[in-house]
Structures are given as C-alpha cells and as structure tokens.
Amino acid sequence: MARNQFASKLGLLAATVGSAVGLGNIWRFPAETADNGGAAFLLLYIVCIAVLGIPVMLAEFALGRAGRSDSVGVFRKIAPGTKWWIVGIVSVVAPFMINAYYFVVEGWTFEYLISSVTGNLFEPIEGATTNSEIFAAHMQQYIASPWMPILATWAVIFINMFVLLGGVSKGIERLSNIMMPTLFVVLLVLCSVALSLPDAGAGVEWFLAPDFSKITFPAVISALGQAFFSLSLGMGILVTYASYYPEDARLTRTSVVVVASSLLVALLVGLVIFPAMSATGLQDQALRGTTLVFRTLPEVFALMPATGLCAILFFLLLFAAALTSTVSLLEVTVAFLVERLNLSRRAAVLWTTLPLLPLSAVCSLSFSSMEHVTIFGMTIFELLDYITSNYLLPLVAISVCIFVGWVAPRSLLRDQLSNHGRLRCRIATPVELVVRYLAPALVLLILVWNLVRNG
Ligand code: PFF
Questions:
Q1: What is the CATH number of the domain that holds 419?
Q2: Among 91, 235, 264, which residue has the most ligand 1 atoms within 8 Å of its CB, making it the best to mutate?
Q3: Which of 74, 134, 180, 346 has its CA 20 to 30 A from that of 268?
Q4: Domain span at 382
Q5: What span, in angstroms and rounded, lies between the C-alpha atoms of 402 and 418?
C-alpha cells in the first residue's frame, strides 16, 4: 500500500503550522511572558526559536522524510540493528500522555465556545456580584461538576477521531486548510479591537519594550522550554508529518514559515491580551493558564465592546488551535500502529483514541473530585504535564539531534536540506553545527537545570 502523503504544499504547511500553533502559544506563552519579565522574555524566546528551533526542526524533518516511516520506524530503517528505536518509543508514548491532559483543556475550550454562543457564559451567578466573582464562579461551577467536563472532553476526542479517520490528506490536511486561515483572521480582528481600546498603550509597552535586567538564567531556560513546546519539537510529531512530505517539499522554507507563523501567533496573542488587560484595568490579574483563559479573559471581554462576539471569536480561535495540535499528537501513535503493527488506519485510530477516554476522564476528575489525590505532591494532571514537558520532550529532542548529527550517515541532513543536491542550501553548515553541538549541549543544560531545581 502506498504511504500517505500531504496532497499540496500549502496543505502540508497548514498542517505543520496547525500542529505548532496550539495551547502552547495562546495559553502558555502569555503566562511565561508575564512570569519572566514581559518583553525581555519575548526577546529570549525569539533568539531561542531562531537559533535552536529552526535547526532542531530541520533535524526532525530530515529524519522523517529520509526514513519515510513512523517515529520508531525511521530509527530502524536508518540505523538497523541498533537500539535507537527506543527513542522512537519514547516519542510515541509522550504525545499520548500529553494528549490525556491536553484534551481536558480542549474540552473546556469547547464548552466555553458553546457557552459563549448560547450566552450562558455571561449570565449572572447567584452570590457573585463583581465580574471577577462571576467568572471565577463560572469556572468553579463548571469544573466542580464531574460530568460536564468529562463529556466535553469526550466530545472533542470524538471530533479528533473523526478527523483522523478521514486520513492524512482528506482529514488532517483539509481540517488545517480551514482552521489555520480562520485562526489568523480571528486573531487579527481581536487584535484590532484590543489595540483600539483607550489605555491599550501601557500593555503594548510592557509587552514590547524590554527591560534587560530581567534577562536571567531561569528566564533563558523557560524561553528554551517554551520554544520546544510551542514548535512541537521532541515529540515525534514533526518526524511523522515530514514522512508525509513529498520529495520536492523545501524543508528549510517550511521550517522558517512554521517558526515565523508560531511567533506571529504568539505576538498577536500578546497584542490582544496585554493591551486588553491594561485597558480594562485588569493588568494585575492572574495570568496562569487556566485562570487567564477561562476567568480573566471573559472578564476582559465583559468590559469590551461586542462582548459576546469577542468571546465567541476567542474560544473559536483557541479551539481551532487546540484541535489541529491534538490531531498531530494523535497521528504519531496512529502512524506507529499502522506501520509497526500493520493495523488498518481505522483500527489504529480507534486503538489510539479509545484508551484516551478513561485516561482523560481521570485527568479531568483530578481537577475537581480528585483534587486531593496527589502523587509527589502533584495532581495527575500536573504530573503528566511535568514529566512530559520537563523531561520527555527535551530527552527526545536531544536524542534526535545526536542521531541525525552523529549516528545517521553524515550526508543525510545535507541531502534532505538540498533535496538531494537540487537546491542550494546556504544554511546547511550552521544547521549542522547547531544539530551536532549547540542543541545537544543546551538541551542537556535544560535537563540538568530541571533536575537540580526540582530535586
Ligand atoms: N505545539 C503545540 C502547542 O504549543 O500547543 C502542541 C504541542 C506539541 C504541545 C507538543 C505540547 C507538546 F509537547
């Protein structure tokens, strides 16, 4: 059977941008920026994605397209008889774990999108008088009921299942072709509304004028972590997607467009959130993920013109971003099951998604009824996020770089970047240097730092 391929260059770009742009850009980025000093963090993040993000992404693309297999198969094909396939196994397990909690948040997004459409989100709640209390009560009421969030999570798992059953080009590519342009249009509309608010300038300045004294070692480490998370690196995702790229796709150009789009989305999100918060006098509100997106932002919307419409657009944006990312996370496991275990695509999709129903239900419950159940002082939700983001992701990224830089044939990277000599690739040498030396050294630093900091 012929391997799957993306049908068009635009489609492969949309799908890869769709994978990169996700909750990491909209939920994690503003929180990291706020925690690490505003514009100074933005600057560090830009340096990280340019210096490290592009080369590591190219290493994953090269591995996927040269190996033309799932994220375990590529290691088996390129280095048969070695144990490198174990890295592939980690890269299959990690997205599966991420999905278990990512789906819970995607479920909340879905529920909030529906409540903004029905207007429920802005209904007053008994006992809550100020806007702040109303939206805190809404979130509390929602996550405290065990069933609603689980049903919403299962609904989005079924939506993902439906997309994946459609296949690579008719499912993933088609979805991304619709969702990605929608996401950019919605962001531009929200951005122009936020920037036209009186007093928006203070938020813009905080976000864009760097205070260099805020550049600290922990901020550098956070920027590196954010770069990996937001570009979908170290997850087997880009290896799997690149294995569906046609031979004449230009990897360097693709990586630059993906990285630039991810940065653009983060910038635009910052230009919506920070000006809107300063304009509504809410700049001191909590910015941590859940609180920001599901409490502070509805509060901001309530003070903005066209409240209902702004909320619908925002949650639509968040849902589009999350959906195209979870689809990419799931595709890693689907490709693995199809190619390693010879399952049909339909069976692989079912085996990938069905176990996530109970797993994500447990994650969802860990937010409400099981809040007291902790392992190493963390809820199940926090534990999954902690292990994957802090350890598995950098571990896979470093291994891919060492594999492509030192174990695979020396010509692999250059051949892939130049499409076997058909293109001139001026950045091949710097990319090679980063992949062989800089990236493994820096990622090792992140791992050691995390270990030392967290004991
Ligand atoms: N890059 C996407 C995001 O930023 O949300 C999806 C994602 C991929 C998240 C890999 C986390 C991850 F480890």
A1: 1.20.1740
A2: 235
A3: 134
A4: 9-453
A5: 20
Any atom of ligand 1 within 6 Å of the Cβ of 230: yes
Residue from 16, 109, 230, 388 to probe ligand 1 pocket by mutation (most atoms less than 8 Å from CB) = 230
> How many other β-carbons are positioned within 10 Å of the β-carbon of residue 247?
11
SS3 284: coil
Is 392:384 a contact under the CB 8 Å cutoff? no
Q: Does the residue 1 lie in any domain?
A: no
Task: Give CA–CA dist 22/231, Å, rounded.
Answer: 9
Give residue-wise pLDDT tens across range 322-339: 999 999 999 999 999 999
Which candidate, 201, 394, 203, places its Cα nearest to that of 287?
203
- Transcribe 164-218 into DSSP letters: HHT-IIIIIIHHHHHHHHHHHHHHHHHHHHHHTSTTHHHHHHHHHS--GGG--HH
What confidence category does residue 373 fall into, taking pLDDT thresholds of 50, 70 and 90?
Answer: low
Establish if 280 belongs to a structural domain. Answer: yes
Distance CA 86, CA 70 (A): 13
- Residue 66 in any domain: the answer is yes
For 338-371, write each residue's pLDDT tens digit.
Answer: 999 999 999 999 999 999 999 999 888 877 665 5
Is residue 235 in contact with ligand 1, taking CB distance under 6 Å?
A: yes
The count of domains in the chain is: 1
Residue nearest to atom 7 of ligand 1 (CA): 232
In this structure, is residue 3 part of a structural domain? no
Pocket test for ligand 1, best of 229, 231, 333 (most atoms within 8 A of CB): 229
pTM over 0.85: yes
Pairwise CA distance, residues 74 & 84, whole Å: 10
Query: Which range (84-88, 244-248, 297-301, 320-324) has the least confidence?
Result: 297-301
> Which tokens sit at 347?
């069976």
